[in-house]
Amino acid sequence: MRILIADDHAVVRRGLREILASEHDMDVVGEAKNGDEALELVRKLDWDVAVLDFSMPGRSGVELIKEIKRRHPGRPVLVLSMLPEEAHAAQVFKAGGSGYINKESAGEELTAAIRKVANGGKYVSANFAEKLATDLAPDAEKPLHESLSDREYRVMWLLASGKQINQIASEMFLSPSTISTYRARILKKLKLTDNAALVRYAVKQQLI
Questions:
Q1: What is this structure's pTM?
Q2: How far apart are CA 193 and CA 60, in angstroms?
Q3: Which of 91, 117, 135 is the last residue of a domain?
Q4: Are strands 49-53 and 99-102 parallel, antiparallel or unpaired?
Q5: Which of helix, strand or coil describes residue 32?
């Protein structure tokens, strides 16, 4: 299997490469340090599975997953994150991702997850599978942040993570006024009044 990996930390990429090097049937064919590089490699290389960090400079998260799936709908995308599955896994699967792994578990789970998604399956932990089943129950209440668009979700997460509007604008290649408009929409949808309330909401929902 030809694996493409993308993470903005060199030490993480090296660790992933070492894990995969021990597998006789896996070969890392390309490495990217941000979302734009990942898209370039997706276009140029022959690959079977993409393993991506959820949050990188430039395009990342659900936006990056959707773009890769638009170009290659039949190829699986596996997401790594430092955050627990409860934070972003649902968004990843909605965007077309095939699996979600917490980076702390990558040493034990990565190769099994790659094999599963390469064979057409989905990969989640047992705990998150149980949560999904609970959330799909007829009387389950969906959290307010699930009503956000992909871009609103990313702005929300960056604001809750402590980024300023100018920083977010630079990272997402948008104008500060556009980010301010997104912020206003997000606060309205989440029924919140300011950034402090947004941070409290994100912490309560385990989004950060």
A1: 0.68
A2: 27
A3: 135
A4: unpaired
A5: strand
**Which 3 state secondary structure label does DSSP give 29?**
strand
* Token pair in block for residue 149: 């668009």
Q: Is the C-alpha dihedral spanning 143, 144, 148, 153 positive or negative?
A: negative
What's the rounded Cα separation, in Å, for the pair 152 and 154? 5
The percent of residues above 90 in pLDDT, for the chain, comes to 60
74-84: average pLDDT: 89
Q: In this structure, are 106 and 30 located in the same domain?
A: yes
The token pair that represents 207 in the structure block: 């989004």
Task: Show the domain range for 192.
Answer: 144-204
- 139 pLDDT tier (thresholds 50, 70, 90): low
State the alpha helices, DSSP H only, in the chain.
Answer: 10-21, 35-44, 61-71, 85-94, 106-118, 126-135, 150-160, 165-172, 176-190, 195-204
